[in-house]
Amino acid sequence: MIRFNSSILTPKTFEYINDAFNKNHISGDGEYSKLCHKWFIEKLNCHHALLTHSCTGALEMAAILADLKIGDEVIMPSYTFCSTANAFALRGAVPVFIDIREDTLNMDEKLISDAITPRTKAIVPVHYAGIGCEMDEIMNIAKNHNLLVIEDAAQAFCSYYKNRPLGTIGDIGCMSLHETKNIASGEGGLFICNNKKLIERSEIVREKGTNRSKFHRGQIDKYTWIDIGSSYLPSDILAAYLYSLLEIHEKIQEKRIKIWQKYYESFSKLELSGKIKRPFIPKNCSNNGHMFYLLLNNLNERTEFIKFLYENEIYAPFHYVPLHSSPAGKKFCKTSSKMKNTDKISETLVRLPIHFNLTEIEQDKIIKIVLAFFNK
Fold it and tell me: Are 253 and 81 contacting, i.e. CB atoms less than 8 angstroms apart?
């Protein structure tokens, strides 16, 4: 079976993990966590970056920092993972769903203004497949209405909008380091702070509501509980693994983009004949090779397609069930616009295997089987 995803090991991986053990600091914010923080701050050119145990954790931190009250509203797409909405629902806020664009599958920025009410406190753009939302317009809307912008950049490692790293344009960015992402620590995430006013409190929220970070830096002689928060730190063992991948990130990105491009070129005739649609990347956005998907014409065809691939030992899943149609979405959230594109995409999208360990032979087989399905 050709797997959808595969974990990466480097020659340094176990060396760094053993080193973390030998330093007798395997809890959070050890030496490797600090190395990762430094790497991300320099790479992203952001004010602050903190590892978290998940992107979910980073989103929950963002929701706390937004000072949301019960009944406050947060605008986001419905076509996203439940964590995007969960983080804000946990604070008593109401996620407000708007439809996505048909081309990029990102939130339709033209629908944001109509979704704003006196209770709106934040906009949460989700950069689907690592392709940037229309951030200039989103930031202008947020500025005009005094709203926070919290980027869900879960899939956006090393991806850019107008040469700016995704996750660094809004007030806060949240990135995933889950094993299915380009760079991973197994489970993991990254909290990116671009608003200087939020940096100190973000450290406190991440450390269970204490000023422990200041204590470790020698800025205070003892630490204490001063705010709400939780334990969002990952183990330094995971940071050691992550750092071994960050060292070869260019090689990983080069391989993923090469795979993505070969898929794109191989299925051009299928798109011209109207059998599928390929991903669309605006000129002002970069492609980080995170995901390659095909859009089929209807649900029945997609079901048969996935089954056909599986019978030929290729695992290719679809993606989200829209949050607006989920039981929790109906209970805790509200929908601001018609969900025509969201509903259509959720029934027709299929993701093909793309990972660092995918071989040319495996990709050639995938391409051959895909073409066979549509040409039979």
Answer: no
